[in-house]
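Translate structure to sequence.
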């Protein structure tokens, strides 16, 4: 339904007299041969299906995809999945999402973040990634399988952190301090020179 059921293939780049240009390849969408970008030989493709598989593995059974799609005619993709747990922080329910984004044009890294923002377009994707407190990112080179394992472990820890954060904030919100104690903490943390 997201329109991401295509693959990226890499082809050599040639001059107008068919001489290969060393060190570079073109990333091309297999369904219509649209050129998505020019990348170096070191660039490793993360297929759209691999992004979905990563999210499935991270969130496990019952993963619920909210939105997914491509931007700039396939140069960038995103997947947004609702995390199974809701968190209560200061009496407010937070519905966390996991957002996976990648670029096929060589302009950006792979990013996976936990966010309360529901991504539906470029603007909300930008806000979700720029405001995420927990994010994992890597460039499209090297051993991507090992890097994705690292992301999986990092984000599992982040989800546990969110659960514990809600509990700790609730405990802290029940502690009452006198005005004098608050002023003492302010003086200690923000000392003012008397002039």
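Result:
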């Amino acid at each position: 339904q997201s329109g991401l059921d295509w693959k990226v293939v890499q082809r050599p780049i040639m001059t107008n007299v068919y001489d290969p240009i060393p060190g570079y390849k073109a990333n091309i969408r297999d369904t219509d041969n649209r050129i998505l970008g020019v990348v170096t030989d070191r660039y490793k493709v993360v297929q759209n299906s691999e992004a979905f598989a990563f999210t499935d593995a991270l969130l496990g059974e019952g993963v619920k995809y909210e939105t997914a799609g491509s931007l700039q005619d396939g140069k960038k993709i995103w997947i947004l999945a609702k995390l199974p747990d809701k968190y209560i922080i200061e009496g407010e329910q937070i519905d966390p999402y996991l957002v996976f984004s990648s670029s096929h044009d060589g302009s950006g890294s792979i990013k996976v973040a936990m966010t309360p923002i529901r991504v539906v377009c470029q603007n909300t994707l930008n806000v979700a990634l720029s405001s995420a407190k927990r994010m994992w990112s890597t460039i499209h080179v090297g051993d991507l399988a090992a890097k994705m394992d690292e992301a999986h472990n990092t984000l599992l820890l982040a989800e546990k952190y969110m659960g514990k954060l809600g509990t700790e904030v609730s405990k802290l919100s029940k502690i009452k301090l006198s005005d004098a104690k608050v002023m003492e903490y302010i003086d200690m943390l923000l000392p003012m020179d008397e002039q």
